[in-house]
Amino acid sequence: MPTIMITGAAGFIGGHVAREAERRGGLTLRLMSHRRPPTATAATATAPTATAPTATAAADPATAGPGSGAGAGVPGRRTVRADLSDPGSLRGVCEGVDVLLHCASQIGGTPEANEAVNARGTAALMAEARRAGVSRVVYLSTASVYGRGAFRAARPEDLVRNPGSPTSGSRAHAEDAVLAAGGVVLRPHLVLGDGDRWVVPGLARILRALPGTVEGWAARTSVITAHDLARLLLGAGLAPAGDLTASVYHAAHPVPVTVRTLLGAVAAVAGPAADPAAEDLTAVRARELLAARGIAAQGLDMLTSDHWFDSDPVWRDLRCTPGPDFEAAFKELAEGYRRALPDI
Questions:
Q1: b vs e for 11-44, b when ≥16 Cβ sit within 10 Å of the residue's Cβ?
Q2: CB 302 within 8 Å of CB 147
Q3: Which among 130, 148, 137 has a CA at the least distance from the CA of 104?
Q4: What is the DSSP letter of 260?
């Protein structure tokens, strides 16, 4: 019965991975958490979640899911407390581990914190994994390592990383450490679901600040539910080595979504917004309006140019069937967003 260690197990995606591992069965789980222990009640929850987790120095609300993870009270699960920003705390955490699913990242905060957790912390964790003889490492990264688009049916081998923030830059360094250790990297773009404190709340703020569409919202973008992302992370950790044809994969639903469709779904759960038929703004005018409201234009950049990443290889290599398309999946998530958005 293989032992899987999940970092960021009290966070957004890490919690989903723990629940997916529990559903699959036949696994021994070791859950690494920094700020708070994973909870036993969340281990039995079934609602999908959404985006990149934080089990480190400052749990960012964008990535730390509420009570996500499987807890110490669940048979076959053990929680270990360690801090990626403190390499000494990592000693021995990988002993007896067969597969390491590294789902913890520092999102936002100071450049120093990002470097300490994502870059140096991951390098220290990889050293521990090598010392302990871990057979497979899978790292949850982000398509943000590419910087600004446009990207159309883009494959990892055709793209050059060009991170535009300290978080993305430090996660690119983390990727390097994982790849040097023979590991596998998954890069999702937008991740949706229960516990999302970043994607849909950010889109809702943009919608509420603008009096209409922006250049028709015609761009296409890649999305994935946290549930599907957890399936891919676990699948990449357990797949026979011969099935993996790459060391870096994009992780998204194979069918991209138009920004118009995405924002229409968000508007339906986010409450009153401006009539989208009122005006079709230029991107320049939209940035001015967002700046006046104190909203960063970075999110707008992702909505006005294609961010569509080819993810067919990961589904094919893992012999995994994607979940429902965007509209069907979002219907299942809508009520959770309606409850959560007023508190964000």
A1: bbbbbbbbbbbbeeeebbbbbbbbeebbbbebbe
A2: no
A3: 137
A4: H
Mean pLDDT across 243-268: 96
Residue 118: DSSP 8-state: I
Q: How confident is the model at residue 64 (pLDDT cuts 50, 70, 90)?
A: very low
Residue in 82, 95, 69 with CA at minimum distance from that of residue 35: 82
User: For residue 77, what pLDDT is reported?
Assistant: 83
Q: Radius of gyration over alpha carbons of the chain, in Å?
A: 19
For range 107-125, the mean pLDDT: 96
- In the chain, where does DSSP find H-type helix? 12-24, 40-43, 111-114, 122-132, 166-180, 199-209, 226-238, 259-270, 283-292, 298-303, 312-317, 326-340
Count of CA atoms in the C-beta half-sphere (13 A) of 314: 31
Lowest mean pLDDT among 58-72, 142-156, 326-340: 58-72
Q: Are strands 220-221 and 257-258 parallel, antiparallel or unpaired?
A: antiparallel
User: pTM for the whole thing?
Assistant: 0.88
Those residues whose C-beta lies under 8 Å from the C-beta of residue 208, and which sit 6 or more positions away, are 270, 273, 274
Phi, psi (rounded to 5 degrees) for 49: -125, -160
Q: Give the C-alpha distances (Å, rounded to integers) separating 69 from 99, 132, 144, 174, 291.
A: 17, 24, 25, 23, 37
Please compute, for residue 143, the number of CA atoms within 13 A of its CA located in the half-sphere on the CB side. Answer: 31
> Are the beta carbons of 300 and 283 closer than 8 angstroms?
yes
